[in-house]
Amino acid sequence: MPTQIIDGKAIAAEIRAEAKVAVAELSKHDIQPCLAVVLVGEDPASKAYVGSKVKACEEIGMKSLKIVHSVDMAEDDLLAQIDELNADASVHGILVQLPLPKHMDEERVTERIDPAKDVDGFHPVNVGKLSIGIDCLTPCTPTGIPEMIVRSGLEMSGKHAVVIGRSNIVGKPMMSLLVQKGHKANCTVTCCHSGTKDLAYHTKQADILIAAIGVPEFVKADMVKEGAIVIDVGINRVEDESAAKGYRLVGDVDYASVEPVASAITPVPGGVGPMTVAMLMGNTVKAAKMINGLPV
């Protein structure tokens, strides 16, 4: 059978459409979900990410606050800004765009956000709730991956999932999500990282292989079990003189060699990437419901 290409753009559009319906339903309760996005500095990539988030809010009828500060802003002033947003009942989600300038402590800033409004799912309270299976706001990128798999008609329960990478943003929450009960999880989970010996031995055991290490085209065909579902979280720029921009985007998986081996695979771009903003919209709607005591 030909390899199934998991279309992240189409699935993300589906999730955004569902969020739009939910926003319309909340309006009947006089609630308009609102996402506050705080950007410190002029980093081009961060500005682009913030722009995409604000645009997504507009498309589904959600309110957004785009708050931009200069790169030399004092950390205490940023913390005071977060306190204001925490206290603002009209704001349901708060996102501080990372990375922050070097003089700021990202951990301290993250912990200042009210866990009920932590739509990035990075606050220790939400990390702890996720680990013990309490419903909460969870990190957008890993949360989108089971959605992609299940909405593509693929089975997860009982499968052996191998995650390459142990970051706090993807790898660790991915493990916590996959091990929970439910049809969008219920996996046996192995985590591989820079300290793993004989990495290929472990990756070849995977029914579901998730690569999140930030190394271009690291996962080769000889590391993948025949028929595995392969999810590529990476997005890397590699120089390419033949490309109009002088570079091309590739994932952490060597797509050309792995695609014939896999039963299903995500492309880069167009795979996991679009899901992140879609899940952020979903998290903001969820936060609005939870804050107002409505079922999620």
Model description:
- The longest helix has 20 residues, at 8-27.
- By secondary structure, this protein is α/β, with parallel strands linked by helices.
- It folds into 2 domains: 31-114, Leucine Dehydrogenase, chain A, domain 1 (Rossmann fold, 3-Layer(aba) Sandwich), CATH 3.40.50; 140-273, Rossmann fold (3-Layer(aba) Sandwich).
- The protein starts with a strand and ends in a 5-residue tail after the last helix.
- The strands form 3 sheets. It has a 6-stranded parallel sheet with strand order 1-11-8-7-5-6. A 3-stranded parallel sheet has the order 3-2-4, sandwiched between helices. Strands 9-10 form a two-stranded antiparallel ribbon.
- The protein has helices at residues 8-27, 44-60, 75-87, 106-112, 124-132, 140-151, 171-178, 199-203, 255-258, 273-291; strands at 4-5, 34-40, 63-69, 93-96, 160-164, 188-192, 208-211, 229-232, 236-239, 247-250, 264-265.
- The chain is built from 10 helices and 11 strands.
- Strand 9 and strand 10 form a beta hairpin.
- It is globular.
In short:
This protein has helices at residues 8-27, 44-60, 75-87, 106-112, 124-132, 140-151, 171-178, 199-203, 255-258, 273-291; strands at residues 4-5, 34-40, 63-69, 93-96, 160-164, 188-192, 208-211, 229-232, 236-239, 247-250, 264-265. The protein is α/β, with parallel strands linked by helices and 296 residues long.
